[in-house]
Amino acid sequence: MTNGHLTMNRHLYDSLAEIHEMRCCALALFIAVSSTACKTMEGLSQDLGGVFGGSAKEVIVPRDRAEMVKGVQTMLSEKGFNPGTIDGKDGPGTRSALRAFQKSRGMTVTSGITDEAYLQLASDDDSKAAPQAEDPEDSRECARNFAKQQGFRNYRTTATLQGTSPTVATNRLVRELGRKGFIINSQNPSAGQVNATFDAGQSDIQISAFIERNGTGSRVELNYVGTGAGFGVLFTPASAYRNDLCSYIEAMGR
Fold first, then answer.
1. By CB distance 3.0 to 4.6 Å, which of 26, 122, 186, 231 could disulfide with 59?
2. Is position 91 within any domain?
3. Positive/negative CA dihedral, 26, 28, 31, 36
4. Cα(13)–Cα(237) distance, rounded to whole angstroms?
């Protein structure tokens, strides 16, 4: 009986020892996996930091399209790339400014305002900024014909609108300028003439348009004149004025 008890106790002891050894192995495995996982996450964080130009930071892209576009416009403006009016509306001025920003940073040029573009701007390190240059890929007629006139902030461009009459083009321009906050001083749709002013505080912007029939469409001349102290202290690249004028012409042709 005694030998039997001893044998059973020996088996029980061996079983408990095996269980203890298995638990120790499991614990060691857990620690090793946890350590590896931590190192992996740390490496991922470092990788993200390298991609985003510093320590990794959480960036949340707004789900609302207008808010996302407005955020892109705001960040572009803060970085010295003028998108035009910050209104949350995707337009040629914003897209041109975005392309200029991406090229200056050596980033992938996205197909417009996307989540990737938002993340590029939000994660950008301003210390890596390169001088802003004109967009060489802008082949629009209004961009090709854009030129500075005599005066400090005096620009002019021309373009052809296919299939749009002078009357329709004039009415569309008046509507677009009104949306941008301009005061319409005078308009004559039948003669294709518009004159509008925007009060920007220390500066004023004047837009004048002359639209005449050209075959089945129209020939448009737009003039931009900026006056006031505000223009003396704020440097704005000519491409910003070009984008503004081109956006008005494109609005006329819609």
1. 122
2. yes
3. negative
4. 84
- Are 150 and 222 found together in one domain? yes
Q: How many residues does the chain have?
A: 254
- Burial profile 128-166: b = 16 or more Cβ within 10 angstroms, e = fewer: eeeebeebeebebebbebbeeeeeebbbbbbbbbeebbb
Interhelix angle 115-122/65-78, nearest 10 degrees:
40
The answer to whether residues 175 and 230 belong to one domain is yes
Residues 157 and 212 in one domain: yes
Residues 6+ apart with CB under 8 A from 182: 196, 197, 198, 205, 207
Bigger pLDDT: 179 or 16?
179
Residue 135 domain flag: no
3-state SS, residue 208? strand
Which tens digit of pLDDT belongs to each residue from 93-150?
Answer: 788 888 888 888 888 888 889 999 999 999 887 655 554 444 544 567 888 898 888 7
Long-range (24+ apart) CB contacts under 8 A made by 202-205 are 202/228, 202/229, 202/230, 203/227, 203/228, 203/229, 203/230, 203/231, 204/228
Question: Among 57, 80, 96, where does a domain finish?
Answer: 57
Domain that residue 221 falls in: 141-252
**Residue written as token pair 């350590």:** 35
Same domain, 88 and 14: no
